[in-house]
Amino acid sequence: MNRGQVEMKNSENIVGILLAGGLARRMGGGDKCLQLLCGKTLLSYTIDVASEQVKHLIINAAGNSSRFEKFNLPVVPDVIDGAKGPLAGVLTGMEWATQNVPNCEFIATFPTDAPFLPSDLIKRLIHGLYIQDADISCARSDLRTHPVFALWPIRLAGELRRAITEKNIRKIDEWTSQYKVSYVDWPTSPFDPFFNINRPKDLEQAEEYLN
């Protein structure tokens, strides 16, 4: 099996996790992913691109799931209570995939506040994973790592649960430091594809990028 066939085989067994659990304090609270950018929700931008790259998608978010009803995707709250941050979302995705997608090997995490998500993200993350014989594959641009744009093997689910519940680890970098991570670089011209929306002024900047 050549490398291209390996990449295709694995992409079919990847579950995409749409991380929609942020508190969005700098945006005034509420669901940041439901903010509108040029008349379209930020979540919709992510779904449009991610759905072309993985076979399965779920939304990781707490609270009443009916607010996401129009997206027709499973809505899965964190499997650990207490807003533990993105690592809890990673664990949630791993455990959901284990229970619901037979033969799943990896999950991919997608923040839902980054509307310019690369269309080749998963293909290149898989490539980096195998080329570097790594455990985890992570996006990088302009020498900045983007740990929530990443590919994670679900075989690490048990270790991650123990790290969160027993060692109280919250930061992604703290946990991944014990594994081999492949970093895959993207260009930042004409703009960084991992540009994310944190403040109202970021929405204005994103509109400029789109126009």
Summarize the structure.
This protein is an alpha/beta fold and 211 residues long. The protein is 33% helix and 21% strand.
What does this structure look like?
There is one protein chain. The chain is of the alpha/beta class. It has a single domain (3-210), classed as Spore Coat Polysaccharide Biosynthesis Protein SpsA, Chain A. The protein is 33% helix and 21% strand. Strands 5-4-1-6-8-7-9 form a 7-stranded mixed sheet, with helices on both faces. It has a two-stranded antiparallel sheet with strand order 2-3. A hairpin with a 2-residue loop joins strand 2 and strand 3 (40-41). Helix 1 (3-11) packs across helix 4 and helix 3 runs antiparallel to helix 5 (157-165). The model is unreliable at 1-6 (pLDDT under 50).
CATH architecture: Alpha-Beta Complex
Major sheet: order of its strands?
5-4-1-6-8-7-9
What is the count of DSSP helices, taking H or I runs of 4+ residues?
Answer: 7
The value of Rg in angstroms is 16 Å
Rough outline: globular
Separation, N- and C-terminal Cα atoms: 43 Å
Number of domains: 1
- Overall mean confidence score, pLDDT: 91
Oligomer: single chain
The percent of residues in helical segments reads: 25-40%
Number of strands: 9
Low-confidence stretches: 1-6
Structural class estimated from helices and strands: alpha/beta
